Structures are given as structure tokens and as C-alpha cells.
Amino acid sequence: MRSREYDLDFRATARRTSAWGMGLLAVAALFWTWCALLLLTPYEVESPDGRNTDTCQSRLLTEYGTANDGRHNGDLCGDERDWPEALLILGLSVPVSVAGAVLFTVGTVSGRMSAHSEAMRELDRLADTPNAF
Length: 133
What we know:
mainly alpha, 2 strands
């Protein structure tokens, strides 16, 4: 493979790596959005007999403790959205975010370094040719 073909192949691989990184960062953003929705939005819970529903405040921004007290006060809101579910989603987003950031950075830096080396080769070629200026 000639040098130019190798360089073009290298840049295509760098673009693909960067695109994979962006994709993983988008997936991590979806995880973060899902976690934020679980923690910040109010929700409804049905009674055990299924006849009526109770409106519950958000898990994170609760004033009167309806989302955190639980069944011992006769409240069903505490059991509907558990903290472990939100923390699991947040925990899943961490390795996806790290992998996405690493892949995006590697792809971007590889592409820029390839462009820089091509520019340096072009400058060296121009400097070596007589009467270039």
C-alpha cells in the first residue's frame, strides 16, 4: 500500500473511531436523561386493590417526604421508584461515557495528527524543490 493510500485509510479509521465515540456519548446522554427523569419528575402509583391512584412527588425534589417515607406511613410512593434503579442507570452511564470520551478523543487526535504530518511532508517537499518561491 502506498503512503497516500495508507494515510487515507488511517484517516477513515480515525473518523470511524470518532463516530463510535460520539455514538457512545449519545447513549450515555440517554442514560443520564433517563436517570434525571426518574429522579426529577412526579409519578403516579396505584393502590394494591387497583381502584385508585396516588400522585407522588419527584424522588429528588420532595418537600413533604411522600416519595421517601414508604409504607410505614401508609404511603405507597416510596416503593414505586427505588433509588437503586436510578443509581444503576447512572452507574451504567459511567463506563459508556468513559469509553465514548476515549474513542472520540483518540479518533479526533489521530485525524489531526495525520493532517499535520501530511502538511509537514508537503512543507518539506516544497522546501526541497529548487525555486519553489
